[in-house]
Amino acid sequence: MSSVTVHDAIRLALPVSTQIVAGHAGLHRPVSWPVVARGLAPLFTELHGNEFALVSVPALRDIDPPISLPMLIERLISVPISALAIVGHIDGQSIAIAEQANLPLLHLANDVDIRVVDRELQRLISDYDAQVDRRAAQIALELGEQSLAGGGFPAMLALLASRTGRAVAIFSVKGEMLAFHGSSEIKSTLLHIGLTPGTQRVGGIDTWCLPLTAAGHGIGFIVLAGPSLTDADKATVKRAAMALAMELTKTQALSAVEERYRGNFLEQLLAGNLTDPLVLQQRAREIGVDLRKPHVALVFSLPSDQQSQLQSQFVNAIPQLGSTIPWLNHALGVLCFVPADVANSSEKQIVQLVLHDVQAYFPTVRATYGRVALSPSDWVRSQTEAELTQKLLRTHTQPVLGYAEIGVYQLLLPLVNNTDAMVFYHQHLGALLDYEREQHGELLQTLEAFFDCNGNLARTAEAIHVHRNTLLYRLSRISQICHVDLDNTETRLSLWLAIKLHRLVGNRPTDSL
To answer: Fewer CB atoms near the end CB (10 Å): N or C, the chain?
Structure first.
């Protein structure tokens, strides 16, 4: 027979509606056995100490002679009993007496049958494990009913937290917190938990983690957190796991449908298939997108071997924002449109929050964004700008780049596959590129630095770490190889544009635009 405390009795035998009105300090007192007040004097025939007394206030008035509740409490304190549960009104004097003696004083609802409570307490004390299992099964049944009623995780976790007195969290298999019920302090702590099944102490808080499975596959985790977790807590969570796993499966399936619907909306809009303004607005409202707000196209990319991970887990990177941001898988990675929540915001300000969340989830992700689209008719333009900027990002060291920041490349990017542009590129830079491949020289780097330094010889020599005379010799060789006069303004402009094109087609990283 396990040692049962008042706290155990409240959680595992008493009705959920039970209220503790006094004596919190005595909740860890041991309970020997329940005793029910009789309808005649003496109310209790034999008391040996540590009993859990059950009393109906109306019955106190029916005995001869009548006894007041404060007087009864004082007598029971002298025994002493472990706790007193009352059906009926509890006056302030009774509460004060119980509080002073640290006697747990519990209020039971008027419709509670004391005989049922007595039976549940006897079961708990006689066979603790069996009672734990019965109560856990009851909670699991209630959780299933909550799920069927459409309460979802908010209602289910609130129920589980109220039954256990612990904070409860649901995590995805990737570690994202999907739902939580408890204090904000515990929530902040659990955001850093390692999801290893079993018991661990995190930030001074005891936690217990259990995998959630469906069809033999892990789909997430449930974490219970609070002081001094008990076997009863764990048994309850184990029983609840099936109902929670079913809810998680349902939630994930619904989320997948919503994602497909959201992506379909975006595909239709960008393809120009949603021409009716009323239909467009209705479809947007259905997925939570406010087309009245300006939007900015944002393209995220990762190396090809990680791109599928980016596409499958992108929604997990923006859990707080996903319902307002339409997105879809894209040839370059993921394309999304971010709404401007503040009027007159710049592109960088609009995308900042989404960038922060996605970069925190995918540290190596790279992103480009277009200019603000004031209406849906401008979304394709913003998308095109973000896509074009991705071409430049591939040869650039910055992880994030906006179309408005790339200067002359706004003109050059659309010309990458243009025949005339490539003829121009090879006409002005071809001979120098051939020389560099044969000699493995540094003339192209020198010419780039020369233009980056606006033709200033001292700054150019310092930038490439050579003597001024060496720089002059290299510039002379460039003039000879390319058959150009570097003092001619038109020649400089042509070579500068050719070098800009080289940065797009030459696949060589650079630190500056």
So the answer is: N
